[in-house]
Amino acid sequence: MALEHAIQTRLKSMLERWQTQRTIGYPQLQPGPTNRISDVHGVKVGHVTLNEGDIQTGVSAIVPNDDNLFVKPLRAGAAVLNGFAKPIGLTQLDELGILQTPIVLSNTFSVGRLYTGVVRYSISQNPEVGRELATVNPLVLECNDGFLNDQQAFALTESMAVDAITSAQSDFARGSVGAGRGMSCFGLKGGIGTSSRYIPELDATLGVLVLANFGRLQALHLEGLAIGEWVETALTEVAAQRDAGSIIIVMATDAPLSSRQLRRVAKRSGAGLGRLGSYWGHGSGDIAVAFSTAHEAAHDLDDSHLEELLCAAAEGCEFAVLDALLQARPVTGFRNHTRMALSDVLDYLATTIV
């Protein structure tokens, strides 16, 4: 009984702080100025969003800088936490350790068209790609938004990939936008979330952007509390979700890391997912990609200095998913399926528990 009382006290404290400060979680590391991936200089994000009845989907693009990436590729690394996924471009990125295009995110059935769109974008910058020049390796990553979006409509087009890239800005929307429009997370509304962490010892920033579409509601943990149990009890109308929908994690840093080191940093995102209650379920495609914008670094960072970046990767991922959950608004879409917003759920719990 004493333990139950202690848990109830912690839950009430968390909900009171949510009501007064609208924040969840205790970051250990210092966020960047805007707490977005774009705190890494040059990084921009663009969205194209479709909100048309059964069509609840979109495209999001992460643009690392204004350079022609085919001519000036960036070092990159990837970690496949669970490979139930249909990416394009991941095998060559893993083999060569370089990023040649902006990163495009969307739903599973749209990967092919968006791949062609990114190829056309690269050709517009480099007219001899695939002729006198080598072919390009677009990176297109996906999650299954089929609960809220009719993927068989094939509503996304090649030009939307280009539009997302060319409209990218450092100040961008989060939540139920772009590729995140139809995504679900822990049985609630998921989508696009972001965070950043500044490491004073390195004078470096690590930024994170997620496309969050994973997790079972019963497993949801906030600040170490298994809050999913209370949500499930209080809101019986929440539709079940297996830990099977996937998450894409994109990390950017201005630290001079090698592709091997970036792969190590990307892998630590899994620790952040675990803090929230994910176990990378059977049908979940959980993929992290990290790139460095440090083109002209005099030397790579020594491994002994990686510790804070590894910590930032775990914490940054956790808080980017929280950002997606808290920024998302409710969406009703395909076959009248609905996902509620975590912010509304917390407000409701606060009125019944606090």
UniProtKB/TrEMBL annotation:
<dbReference type="InterPro" id="IPR005321">
    <property type="entry name" value="Peptidase_S58_DmpA"/>
</dbReference>
<keyword id="KW-0645">Protease</keyword>
<keyword id="KW-0031">Aminopeptidase</keyword>
<keyword id="KW-0378">Hydrolase</keyword>
<dbReference type="InterPro" id="IPR016117">
    <property type="entry name" value="ArgJ-like_dom_sf"/>
</dbReference>
<protein>
    <submittedName>
        <fullName>D-aminopeptidase</fullName>
    </submittedName>
</protein>
<dbReference type="Pfam" id="PF03576">
    <property type="entry name" value="Peptidase_S58"/>
</dbReference>
<dbReference type="GO" id="GO:0004177">
    <property type="term" value="F:aminopeptidase activity"/>
</dbReference>
<comment type="similarity">
    <text>Belongs to the peptidase S58 family.</text>
</comment>
